[in-house]
Write a structure and sequence with these properties.
The protein is mostly helical. It has 29 helices and no strands.
């Protein structure tokens, strides 16, 4: 225990912890509550019609880290602008027709849900906000169409006021992002991959299987941390891209390790010089792995030792590859993948140095060379990552269809309560559609909104009747705003506490004199809390989504890509009709596959999927099979089928592709899998086929098709 940990906590922290409050969250919650009240008071002073919207914006924009605070505030402002502009255009187009408003709003909400589920980070929030900001203006507007402008400007100004209040108050207290934490996690995962490579090159893993599952799990943990890391900082965005590239090349190296299982170590026919260079490479990579474990300890850590170890490893790898090339041989795929990973680590270190502000340290210490290298890491190339097209389509149909049904009821009856319920429902169906388990989340949201509605009823019935002006009503809200912060920080009410504050402020509009009976206030509160209740039913029965279903959807989509590729190759037609372009552009499919595999591994760990032990074999097969199919197609393109043996081999190749397509069609079938294996086995036995391609076809029959068939059966049983 160090001196800092040995210091006693202040008395207020001990008392707060004894009462069940989460002390680190308590300070953030109370300052956010004060920011929300300040936004409310400022909006009231500006004479805005809905000052309580500013308090809601302050709560929504506040974040515990400074970069996230800035990013979320900007996306809230941008989403509000887009949503309000669409709402104004829709109201002017509808000209008081509720039917046009209902259809236009449902279409817009569906579009925002679709786009939002395809994004990452706080851009998801911006897309969702554009959807329900339009709903707020459309649903709450009354009167002629031309009178929508005051409501639109009111919405915009309240959002600006709330975001500005959150930035001004929270910016002074929110800490900066701790870049060293993520960088240390990433380097540790890469070091484990490097150590597994060294173990195989030294033949320490002979007779043992590479623990591919453990390596995939560590890489998947880092990938999850990269979700929100780039928010609010261009430097962090470049670091995130560099880490994604490192993840990609690390996955490629893991694949090569699994491919070379049982063939590890040096070639016995290699020269003594090559074997010595291989051992030198192992030593250099091992030293690099140890250096990556050791750094960084803090944001000012010196990376000179790490850079030196990386430089030595790259030089050793280049010398080994050069010795093979001088002998007229190609470097093994594993060494090639290792070299690409080392280069990715080199580029990543430059980006990380910028993120850790080590370039300033280099300037002060006179490290001109390091400064020049660091400047090269300012721009990392983007890469194609996984997007959940299936989930986005389901979210769009769910949100748009539900809003359309309720919109038709609104247009038929003209009820303001139905319109207000549509507003709450649009928020629930948009914001929470990207959550892991929306229906489960709705239970906490409903509890939070019930608490918020109870606080609002208490203020409306027992406090506001004593107010003599609208400003007194505003000041009487201060204790309730602080109570919302306490609810946010308490361990038993933290889940759903954000919705406590949202529901409370949406019901507490400080309009003097206070009108409405307790029954009217109660009916409005019930309409508000009906939003999560209805959303729970929708999430439960319309495209139900949870962690298990997301895992199954992703796995099913990945497995289905192999038969789909075979189908596209068959559609190319006869050799005379083949096109020059490849079926897959460059290595884009490899990047997406690796990212999807990491997402799948993380989902399997979260949900404790019983069949997650199948994932390493599935990963190996999914990486191998597309490459085999593309090589087979290239052989078909480049070969003149002039002899009977070649024509027979071509026919067997077509049969193998057809059987692979049939294997992926419909429910998993043992017969279809057996037929596909037999077809690829027959193709592998053809003497006209190149030896390397025949070996890959043999692997398809003996390893890859059975592996994917096992995953299909596991998914089918889980769905049943």
């Amino acid at each position: 225990m160090n001196a800092v940990d040995a210091q006693p906590q202040p008395r207020w922290q001990r008392v707060a912890a004894a009462l069940g409050f989460h002390v680190p969250v308590l300070a953030f919650a109370l300052r956010t509550a004060l920011a929300a009240f300040a936004a409310l008071a400022l909006a009231q002073a500006m004479g805005l019609e809905h000052p309580h919207w500013a308090a809601m914006s302050a709560w929504a924009a506040s974040q515990p880290m400074r970069e996230h605070l800035l990013s979320r505030g900007l996306y809230r402002f941008g989403g509000s602008v887009v949503g309000v502009v669409y709402a104004v255009a829709l109201v002017l187009l509808a000209q008081d027709s509720l039917w046009v408003l209902a259809f236009g709003l449902a279409l817009w909400v569906a579009l925002c849900a679709f786009l939002g589920n395809l994004q990452r980070g706080y851009l998801v929030y911006g897309c969702m906000l554009a959807g329900y900001s339009a709903a707020m203006v459309v649903v709450l507007h009354h009167g002629p169409a031309d009178s929508v402008w005051p409501l639109a400007w009111d919405r915009m100004l309240t959002v600006i006021t709330g975001v500005a209040a959150a930035l001004c108050i929270s910016w002074c207290f929110a800490p900066r992002r701790k870049a060293a934490v993520l960088i240390a996690q990433s380097r540790s995962a890469l070091a484990q991959v490097l150590q597994a490579t060294v173990a195989q090159l030294r033949q320490q893993s002979a007779g043992q299987a590479v623990d591919e599952g453990r390596l995939l799990s560590r890489l998947a943990q880092v990938e999850e941390l990269l979700e929100l890391y780039p928010e609010g900082s261009r430097t962090a965005r470049n670091t995130s891209r560099a880490m994604h590239w490192q993840q990609h090349y690390a996955m490629e190296l893991v694949y090569q390790l699994a491919q070379a299982q049982g063939h590890a170590g040096a070639d016995p026919q290699a020269s003594a010089e090559t074997q010595a260079q291989l051992l030198s490479l192992c030593d250099a990579v091992d030293q690099l792995a140890q250096a990556m474990y050791a750094a960084p300890h803090a944001q000012g850590a010196n990376t000179e030792g790490l850079n030196h170890a990386l430089h030595q490893a790259i030089r050793a790898c280049e010398a080994l590859i050069a010795s093979w090339q001088d002998g007229g041989k190609q470097a093994p795929p594993g060494i090639h993948a290792l070299y690409l990973l080392l280069q990715a680590i080199r580029r990543g270190l430059r980006a990380e140095a910028l993120d850790l502000n080590l370039h300033r340290q280099g300037r002060h210490s006179g490290q001109r060379g390091q400064r020049g290298q660091v400047s090269n890491g300012r721009h990392a190339n983007p890469l194609a990552l996984h997007r959940d097209w299936v989930g986005a389509r389901e979210a769009a149909l769910r949100a748009g269809g539900t809003l359309l049904v309720f919109g038709m009821v609104w247009a038929w009856t003209g009820s303001s309560l139905v319109a207000f319920g549509m507003l709450g429902l649009s928020v629930m169906l948009l914001v929470f559609s990207a959550f892991e388990s929306p229906s489960h989340t709705m239970t906490f949201v409903l509890r939070g909104q019930l608490i918020g509605a109870a606080l609002a009823l208490l203020c409306q019935s027992w406090v506001w009747p004593f107010a003599q002006s609208s400003w007194q009503m505003v000041w009487m809200l201060l204790p309730f705003a602080l109570m919302g912060g306490l609810v946010f920080a308490h361990k038993r009410t933290a889940a759903g506490a954000m919705d406590t504050n949202m529901a409370m402020f949406i019901l507490l509009a400080p309009v003097f004199p206070a009108t409405g009976s307790f029954g009217q206030h109660l009916s409005m509160a019930l309409v508000v809390v009906s939003g999560p209740a209805l959303a729970w039913a929708v999430y439960r029965w319309v495209y139900p989504t949870n962690g298990q279903r997301r895992l199954q959807t992703l796995a099913r989509m990945m497995v289905q890509e192999v038969p789909d590729l075979a189908h596209r190759l068959l559609q190319d037609g006869k050799p005379a009709q083949w096109q020059v372009r490849p079926a897959y552009p460059s290595n884009r499919w490899q990047v997406q596959l690796h990212h999807r595999l990491l997402r799948l591994v993380r989902w399997a760990e979260k949900t404790q999927w019983p069949e997650r032990a199948l994932l390493p074999r599935m990963a190996l097969s999914l990486r191998t099979m597309p490459a085999t199919l593309l090589k087979l197609q290239q052989w078909r393109r480049d070969t003149l089928l002039v002899t009977p043996a070649l024509r027979r081999t071509e026919r067997l190749a077509v049969v193998a592709l057809h059987r692979l397509v049939q294997c992926g069609a419909g429910a998993p079938s043992t017969k279809a899998s057996r037929n596909a294996c037999a077809a690829w086995q027959a193709l592998a036995q053809q003497s006209c086929l190149p030896a390397a391609l025949a070996a890959q076809a043999q692997c398809m029959a003996q390893r890859d098709i059975p592996a994917l068939d096992a995953v299909r059966h596991a998914l089918h049983e889980a769905q049943a």
